[in-house]
Write a structure and sequence with these properties.
The protein has about 325 residues and is an alpha+beta fold. The chain has two domains: about 1-135 and about 140-260, Hypothetical protein, domain 2 (Endonuclease III, domain 1); about 270-315, no CATH class. Helix content is about 45%, strand content about 10%. Strand 2 and strand 3 (about 50-55) form a beta hairpin. Helix 3 (about 125-130) crosses helix 14 and helix 4 runs antiparallel to helix 7 (about 205-220). The longest helix is centred in the middle third of the chain and has 15 residues, at about 160-175. The chain is globular and about 50 Å long.
Length: about 325
Amino acid sequence: MWAFTITPQGPFSLAAGLNFLKGFTPARYHDTAQGQALRLAFPADDGHSTVAVEVRQAGGPQGIVEAEVIVHTGLPCEGRAGTGKETAPAPSSPEVDAVRQQLARILSLDVDGSGFPQLAQRDPVVADLMSAYPDLRPVCFHSPYEAAAWAVIGPRIRMVQAAAIKAHIAEHHGQHVVFADGHTLHAFPTPMVLRGLDRIPGLPDSKVERLRLLADAALAGDLDASRLRAMPAQNALAHLRTLPGIGPFSAELILIRGAGHPDVFPRHEPRLHVAMARAYGLSNPDSSDKNRLAGISDRWAPYRSWVALLLRAHSEA
């Protein structure tokens, strides 16, 4: 086990993120740790290893975030889950930096949020949202790869059913990681494992094939978070729509909630648009005008993704 710290730039509450995750169906997160600790298990950005991490925050908002990490390098054989014992030797500095960067992205700590509270000064709707959800930043999917997998699993079935299928895939094909108190988490399988699956209960063969193709795309670098974030947003969305099974809504999900882009207005998320119309008191014609809504979201720059999350959270509370 090894450790590192992340110092938030601007307000950040790990406790608020924990509360959000418990209501985020794709995560199926149930906290069993004592105190305000976040425990995660996920495929590393390298596409081959799995990370287990326990995260705590010292002090209040802007307090240092402390992480204890184990990296598992053993690949589950023939689709069987790993035991949680195949750990890597002492990591190199680049490996530590890579895991730190991935965790920071998951918690939206790779973004300077010091200017976020200032949005409340020019938009009373945002002020109310920040009051309702103090110091909450988006908690993202572990990677664009996992977000893309969810985008393939979820369509045309109930969200709870999709979450159960994703959890089944993790339990039967992902790495099992065991924490000091004996609590076990099941990580989603790495792309190397997912690309070898022929059948997944509850999913039609067409979706299984799309998952395999997305695993190949992840290994080829087409779902690399840094690459997606470095592109102009419209170019990144166009690139994602070239991947199998990824349409406009899914492309936005992957870029915003997978790559952690902080400043994209979701133009293909009807529930958000309804929430915006209600919050801003728009008439019916205006509530369905995406350009009108996008114009309102310009007030939220450079944190459009963050405010959109607060609006969705408030509308579903």
